[in-house]
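During the reporting period, we have paired protein sequences with backbone structure tokens. One record among many follows, to show the layout:
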Amino acid sequence: MWIFLNGRFVPREEATVSVFDHGFLYGDGVYETLRAYAGRIFMLSRHLERLRHSAHLIGLELPVPDKDWPSLIRETLERNGLGPQQTGGGSRDAYLRVSVSRGEGEIGLDPGLCSQPTVVILAKPFTPYPTHLHENGVQLALVTVRRNLDRALPPQIKSLNVLNNILAKQEATRAGAFDGIMLNVQGHLTECSTSNVFFVSRGRLCTPAGACGILEGITREVVLLLAKEEGIPTEEGPYEAEVLWGAEECFVTNTTLEILPVRQIDHHTIGEAGPDGKGGPGPLTTKLQKQFRTNLSRFLE
């Protein structure tokens, strides 16, 4: 594996970061997770736009010019045999991660202690989720961990510090669930540890609004666009957890999951669809899954 690190490509064994890096010490930095399909990157421009916005919100100046990011990311794919013109087995779908930390500096919270940000770009073959998860759906747990208060840590910052999400994921794992749904301090639905939540109520596609304290995901944007194009009524708002118990369908979205159906939340079965009558992807979820795949090429760069 070849990794881009601070201006040059190095083998994995040499891709090391100082123990005085403020990303390591304090989680001070931002990142983006991307996915490439046969060498073409899903919503690359939007991911880079969000990276810039996250950096701006924490007062971090990206050391790579805007115009150079796409070529660096594509070169990372190429150097790892994951570019669009490369062959040699496998689907060549790839997982990409771009991380930018405050950089190396003396111990202390002051960002001024760091003179130069640390930039890391890595790419590796994407391992698909088991097919049965998309066909049958997953179980979620409503966790007690609350989403960070947006006035304390704005959710629009895709931060290297994801301890809030990790605690939610740990609680969900202990409950035997695929992931956990977090509420905000007002008791409204927000999101899972790494994904946005959608549910269907009375034929309307609903999802928590940005004001509830969510990171408005890029796949979430695509789903809302596809729903609009298909004439599916949509709604973004504040919802209490109880609305899920009567939901006709539910699914979660992110860049790697795409659209993943939910069959159960805690002990509540979602809907009546599914191969065994115990929940699973309903007709609207199935339709959006199909539309996502049919239109995928529109969103690749």
Remarks:
- Residues 44-57 form the longest helix (14 residues).
- The radius of gyration is 20 Å.
- The chain has a mean pLDDT of 94.
